Amino acid sequence: MTRRDGAPIVGMIGGGQLARMTAEAATALGIGFRVLAASEHDPAAQVVRDVHLGSHESLEAVLTFAQGCDVITFDHEHVPTAILDALSAQGIAVRPSAQALGHAQDKLLMRAALTKLGAPCPAWSQVASADEVSAFAEEHGWPVVLKTSRGGYDGKGVWVVADATEASDAMSTPLGAGSFWLAEQFVPFIRELSAQVARSPHGQAVAYPVVQTKQTNGICAEVVVPAPQLSEERALQAQELALRIARELDVVGMLAVEMFDTGAGVLVNELAMRPHNSGHWSIEGAVTSQFENHLRAVLDLPLGDPSARAQSVVMVNILGGTVGDLYSAYRHVFARDPELKVHLYGKEVKPGRKVGHVTLLGANAEELLARGRHAADYFSGTIDE
Amino acid sequence: MTRRDGAPIVGMIGGGQLARMTAEAATALGIGFRVLAASEHDPAAQVVRDVHLGSHESLEAVLTFAQGCDVITFDHEHVPTAILDALSAQGIAVRPSAQALGHAQDKLLMRAALTKLGAPCPAWSQVASADEVSAFAEEHGWPVVLKTSRGGYDGKGVWVVADATEASDAMSTPLGAGSFWLAEQFVPFIRELSAQVARSPHGQAVAYPVVQTKQTNGICAEVVVPAPQLSEERALQAQELALRIARELDVVGMLAVEMFDTGAGVLVNELAMRPHNSGHWSIEGAVTSQFENHLRAVLDLPLGDPSARAQSVVMVNILGGTVGDLYSAYRHVFARDPELKVHLYGKEVKPGRKVGHVTLLGANAEELLARGRHAADYFSGTIDE
């Protein structure tokens, strides 16, 4: 299984930017890294030596891919449970396990599990009709957040509906196999937070600083590290909550717990069991990046220090605009800001699509944010100087 | 030439660890990166998507490799001048140029050029016989350092001879094509320093902090950043010297100027026109790594900030010992030191061979060195706890 130098091979299913950035960490550590990508144009497939092309929904493709890998992990949550079970049945280490990953794949499973373990959540209920949404709203008020239990990401599969008519419209969307409707209380949050932890099979876990995230149209737009004006006590509570969820759900690898900060406390919004957009800052900004700690966790190696390397770190996503040629922006943004760290994912530019991110380290989050937004806007083409 | 997203393709000749680490920087920047490697087992060939296998001494292999690249650069200095000239004759951008690179390939050329521009050097002379070495020693004393003008690296091609007999023995070594004997004064230095700069075709240049290096058997063993107890004035002089050499020799990309610190001043020992072992600390330790700045320089992009991210940074090379399986050391070294950054190059372990390095950032160089040496020794197998 392992290579001639004793290093294991980690197989990551999915060839997106998370796999691409994990590859950089694998290269540094000298760990074998194989990617199952849908296309040779996928971000990771462009740069990784050991690429298999195939669908994550094909049992045959996944089993062939997994041959010779020491552990299988994920760039996304979309691998069908039946395939994960088949991998495990063949004795292949799948991390996180199918059972743990179920909570990131299925929001009903996730809500039920979190409620059982007493984690704070918005009020929620499975619903099958607009009438049931209205009944939910009578108790918790309009608007209601409607979600499909499976298949949603980056704002897809989520509707905020103001009344029964809008609920009915949303629910005319066909549900994927095994997916159901979930109604959640609309939470008037003051901001969103993310608490990331890494956890290994033998139970070691480390918690990254709690960060503030800003979503635009359901897509992560900005991250500020640490979350400003979050008391040490509240930050510790959020980290402990994330560590408890990781332990109780037996997560292995990175776990991101996205939270609403209501001012009075936090409510869990989403879980992701993989490296996450809210942790991209850690490549330069932490002693150990989320990508390296994901690898260390799934390999059951001792975890690295998740501390920030600067007083303040900001990450701003680069969203596709009207300019297809991202590269030419380098001449401007690099000349303007020699401290800017840029990551481009090799993706075709489409309006609103995540195509890269920028990171800045320093002392003043507002000043770093202004510089990061300028660079991201210049890449997008919304400003030209 | 360029890819569909507008990004250029950088072709690096040589598939060693420098190409491997440059690949990580290219991936982050979204720059196309192609490597000409001698073997699929070369460090970079194991991880880079776009690998050509072939010899850097084959005109056909190099020309085929260069087709479709926007710029050609180097992992090592061993590409014959005739091949570099052929590339340039075809209108392919070669950076650094054959003319500049000549000074890193040929120590006689280098000494002549440095002497012409007034850079401080040990006394030197071309010699053709032991008698000429003795004549040189009459003026400058024994021992004498004998070098082959071409083909030396990591201590190879260098002899310290105590008398005419030893000189005669050394000079019985057959010289490679175009190589001559060079005698240099033995310098009783108190330590070695390295000053690295990046320079772009339009003449922008940045200087990294001057570092202290420790060589063991001609191989870089340790780097401390910044060089301890080097006055700001002396550090500035060393940086200015490196910047002047880069400008006068028209270097494009990274230049490392290795220097002897005699206590009274510095003397130039060697030049390297590529990323260099004395700059590996910059991956985590600087705002912009030497690998990223090498890419930015050869692409004529504005250069990144070379400042250190911590008060003190140390790098310790991992040398091969008796243990072939480097990976298993992770369980110990990562548990012992969660802040440790490790880079393994995927090379087969041979005694004394550079197979990786470790980096630590902090406040106290001595303390960081002790931790770095422990980790490196554990990988090598010279300690087992």
Properties at a glance:
homodimer, 385 residues, Rossmann fold, Dna Ligase, domain 1, D-amino Acid Aminotransferase, Chain A, domain 1, 3 domains, 9-stranded antiparallel beta sheet, 17 strands, 31% helix, 26% strand, purine biosynthesis (chains A, B), ATP-binding (chains A, B), PurT/PurK_preATP-grasp (chains A, B), ligase (chains A, B)
Structure overview:
Chains A, B: One of its GO terms (biological process) is 'de novo' IMP biosynthetic process. Chains A, B: GO terms for molecular function: ATP binding; ligase activity; metal ion binding; phosphoribosylaminoimidazole carboxylase activity. Chains A, B: Pathway: Purine metabolism. The structure is a homodimer of 385-residue chains. With 385 residues, chain A is of the alpha+beta class. Chain A folds into 3 domains: 9-94, Rossmann fold (3-Layer(aba) Sandwich); 123-185, ATP-grasp fold, A domain (Dna Ligase, domain 1); 191-380, D-amino Acid Aminotransferase, Chain A, domain 1, CATH 3.30.470.20. Chain A is 31% helix and 26% strand. Chain A has 12 helices and 17 strands. In chain A, strands 9, 10, 11, 12, 13, 14, 15, 16 and 17 form a 9-stranded antiparallel beta sheet that branches. Chain A is globular. The N and C termini of chain A lie far apart (52 Å).
Q: Please, how many helices of chain A?
A: 12
Tell me the span between the first and last alpha carbons of chain A.
52 Å
Q: Mean pLDDT of chain A, as a whole number?
A: 95
Classify the helix fraction of chain A into a percent range: 25-40%
| Low-pLDDT sequence parts of chain A | none
Main pleated sheet of chain A: 9 strands, antiparallel
SSE series of chain A: EHEEHEHHHEHEEHEEEEEHEEHHEHEEH
Indicate the multimeric state.
homodimer
Just name the CATH architecture of the largest domain in chain A: 2-Layer Sandwich
- CATH superfamily label of the largest domain in chain A: ATP-grasp fold, B domain
Number of domains in the coordinates of chain A? 3
| Number of E-type strands of chain A | 17
Most extensive interface: A-B, 59 and 59 residues
CATH topology of the largest domain in chain A: D-amino Acid Aminotransferase, Chain A, domain 1
Shape of chain A: globular
Q: Give the structural class of chain A.
A: alpha+beta
Alpha-carbon Rg of chain A, integer: 21 Å
Keywords (chains A, B): ATP-binding, Ligase, Nucleotide-binding, Purine biosynthesis
Pfam family, one (chains A, B): RS_preATP-grasp-like
GO molecular function (chains A, B): ATP binding; ligase activity; metal ion binding; phosphoribosylaminoimidazole carboxylase activity
Pathway (chains A, B): Purine metabolism
